Amino acid sequence: MMENLLANCVQKNLNHFMFTNAIFLCERLLAQFPSEVNLQLLARCYLSNSQAYSAYYILKGSKTPQSRYLFAFSCFKLDLLGEAEAALLPCEDYAEEVPGGAAGHYLLGLIYRYSGRKNCSIQQFRMALSFDPLCWEAYGELCSLGAAEEASTVFGNVASQRLQKTCVEQRISFSEGATIDQITDSDKSLKDTGLSQTEHIPGENQQDLKIMQQPGDIPPNTDRQLSTNGWDLNTPSPVLLQVMDAPPPLLLKNMRRPAVEGSLMSVHGVRVRRRNFFSEELSAEAQEESGRRRSARIAARKKNPMSQSFGKDSHWLHLSPSESNYAPSLSSMIGKCRIQSSKEAIPDTVTLNDPATTSGQSVSDIGSSVDDEEKSNPSESSPDRFSLISGISEVLSILKILGDGHRHLHMYKCQEALLAYQKLSQKQYNTHWVLMQVGKAYFELQDYFNADSSFTLAHQKYPYALEGMDTYSTVLYHLKEEMRLGYLAQELISVDRLSPESWCAVGNCYSLRKDHDTALKMFQRAIQLNERFTYAHTLCGHEFAALEEFEDAERCYRKALGIDTRHYNAWYGLGMTYLRQEKFEFAQHQFQLALQINPRSSVIMCYYGIALHESKRNDEALMMMEKAVLTDAKNPLPKYYKAHILTSLGDYHKAQKVLEELKECAPQESSVHASLGKIYNQLKQYDKAVLHFGIALDLSPSPSDAVKIKAYMERLILPDELVTEENL
């Protein structure tokens, strides 16, 4: 009883985020009742309190699957990827697969990704999805790696069948009091143990919950095998209420503890007969009372000495479902699958299905098992089955749309991504995650105004959410919204000073003010907070490049690519660094790699064309500029450099035509008017040349450009024999 009391207190403190108190009580629990389960509970307390190092030391050397998973998670938090991998992978001494089911495979996928083994990480993420189709993060990682299948395939019929089977197993297991983790790994654990049918285990049937509270009948650790693994023995549920309305059964004999910790033990095809706990007279009286109103049954139940263990002093042991710190069941997530409840007394014989057998059945077998339930209780099973299928269909339909948009966005098919997100309902579309994705899609399209609108809406509705705010600050940087960017940076810092997104916004603010040294410090602070924050490394590279410290810039870009090889911004940054150093062959290679990742970026195409032009590959350069113009007609940069290449080739009339079109799109761009002035000078149209040079000066060009423009104007005014073109 003391062990159970302390364990429930620890769970209650974890649920209420009183982590230090949970650690204190769990240390008392482990000292008094040393066991692997209590050790795992203490490790969970440490991890919840951000003390991964403490969990690492107490779990080191543990052999059980759940302990290995917790140890691997601790190693991952401490960046000990080698030890984390060794803990998750099955050894020769173990017959189990990767512990943790979908979560274990997902964690192993992250380990492989951060250690540079892309193919292995892809395999693990796919395994995680096969275990749990609702493991969205695994699909997101596959999208980031460019290896995601179509969402209609991942979240299609196979996923629906898997979820239906899981819900059926879950409903059976919940009626037996099993934990969520055990339900997830039921197929695997039963296969490993070689058990097809098992004996009845105390604590796995809700009928045993009240019995287990009675001291002296069961050894101390028997009922702890499941209760401390995340399932609150006293959580109110329809099944428990049903049991409490009926006379409690007698404690079953010949009970044994599970052979493998974490395995899902159940009874299948075994008819467990209730034995009379009271005298026949009392049982008859209870049966008569079952037909009366509820208050009479409650009064009759007070005669039962067993019910006294649930007195008013034990109310703190009861945790509501909302207080549970463990993930809700799949059926509760869908909101459709309900556990059957009844105010009737439990029948004398109960037949339970075995999850191990169910897990090996086909979908038709599952349907037949559900049909059997319908025959026994047609009034409730049929609607439940329909609502289950309907709920799964609704969930998967949403994930298909989100998956389509997410996959298209990571393939930089931004228009397709936007069309996919528009299929969502208004409720789903106006969530923070979707608005962030829409903003990023517009950002990649260089549609900064629409990107600004989407990010602004997301920030107004969810001011506490910082994901994507680094991209939002970059949008404001490109729009040169210095005041708004400064306000955003201050707001984000006030929300969370330990978020790398906040410091990226501050860095962009200083970068817009041309204070590159201070901006660099801000980006380095973001890296200190999260060394795997790819974008912060890239922004550091941009600042080093602005300071013309090209070696440091290259080092930052390489670090970003070490984290994410598909981060095309880093490849682009390397190309620009080599281009400025006049290493044109190297620049071309980097731009090619960037285009392989993002083949629709007109900016990358443009600078790739410049690198080709500087290498005297003018025909290829012109073709690349044409492709860039066709890709994004609104981007003025390819048109400008196309005119520049045509001018260098002496084709002034074509260059003039391109610049006249560009002038209509960007009338306030001084460089366009300066280029037109040069072309009119070559065509001997001096009046137009002077006109455009004057307009260029009025548009406040950079100091260096202003000096060049004035030199051209002086040449037009002075006689040709006094000033030659070589003097300029």
UniProtKB/TrEMBL annotation:
<dbReference type="InterPro" id="IPR019734">
    <property type="entry name" value="TPR_rpt"/>
</dbReference>
<dbReference type="InterPro" id="IPR013105">
    <property type="entry name" value="TPR_2"/>
</dbReference>
<dbReference type="GO" id="GO:0051301">
    <property type="term" value="P:cell division"/>
</dbReference>
<keyword id="KW-0131">Cell cycle</keyword>
<dbReference type="GO" id="GO:0005737">
    <property type="term" value="C:cytoplasm"/>
</dbReference>
<feature type="repeat" description="TPR">
    <location>
        <begin position="500"/>
        <end position="533"/>
    </location>
</feature>
<dbReference type="Pfam" id="PF12895">
    <property type="entry name" value="ANAPC3"/>
</dbReference>
<feature type="region of interest" description="Disordered">
    <location>
        <begin position="349"/>
        <end position="385"/>
    </location>
</feature>
<feature type="region of interest" description="Disordered">
    <location>
        <begin position="186"/>
        <end position="206"/>
    </location>
</feature>
<feature type="compositionally biased region" description="Polar residues">
    <location>
        <begin position="350"/>
        <end position="367"/>
    </location>
</feature>
<keyword id="KW-0498">Mitosis</keyword>
<feature type="compositionally biased region" description="Basic residues">
    <location>
        <begin position="293"/>
        <end position="304"/>
    </location>
</feature>
<feature type="compositionally biased region" description="Polar residues">
    <location>
        <begin position="222"/>
        <end position="232"/>
    </location>
</feature>
<feature type="repeat" description="TPR">
    <location>
        <begin position="534"/>
        <end position="567"/>
    </location>
</feature>
<dbReference type="InterPro" id="IPR011990">
    <property type="entry name" value="TPR-like_helical_dom_sf"/>
</dbReference>
<dbReference type="Pfam" id="PF07719">
    <property type="entry name" value="TPR_2"/>
</dbReference>
<feature type="repeat" description="TPR">
    <location>
        <begin position="568"/>
        <end position="601"/>
    </location>
</feature>
<dbReference type="Pfam" id="PF00515">
    <property type="entry name" value="TPR_1"/>
</dbReference>
<keyword id="KW-0132">Cell division</keyword>
<feature type="repeat" description="TPR">
    <location>
        <begin position="670"/>
        <end position="703"/>
    </location>
</feature>
<dbReference type="GO" id="GO:0005680">
    <property type="term" value="C:anaphase-promoting complex"/>
</dbReference>
<feature type="region of interest" description="Disordered">
    <location>
        <begin position="213"/>
        <end position="232"/>
    </location>
</feature>
<keyword id="KW-0539">Nucleus</keyword>
<keyword id="KW-0802">TPR repeat</keyword>
<comment type="similarity">
    <text>Belongs to the APC3/CDC27 family.</text>
</comment>
<dbReference type="GO" id="GO:0007091">
    <property type="term" value="P:metaphase/anaphase transition of mitotic cell cycle"/>
</dbReference>
<feature type="compositionally biased region" description="Polar residues">
    <location>
        <begin position="194"/>
        <end position="206"/>
    </location>
</feature>
<keyword id="KW-0677">Repeat</keyword>
<dbReference type="GO" id="GO:0016567">
    <property type="term" value="P:protein ubiquitination"/>
</dbReference>
<protein>
    <submittedName>
        <fullName>Tetratricopeptide repeat</fullName>
    </submittedName>
</protein>
<feature type="region of interest" description="Disordered">
    <location>
        <begin position="283"/>
        <end position="315"/>
    </location>
</feature>
<dbReference type="Pfam" id="PF14559">
    <property type="entry name" value="TPR_19"/>
</dbReference>
<dbReference type="GO" id="GO:0031145">
    <property type="term" value="P:anaphase-promoting complex-dependent catabolic process"/>
</dbReference>
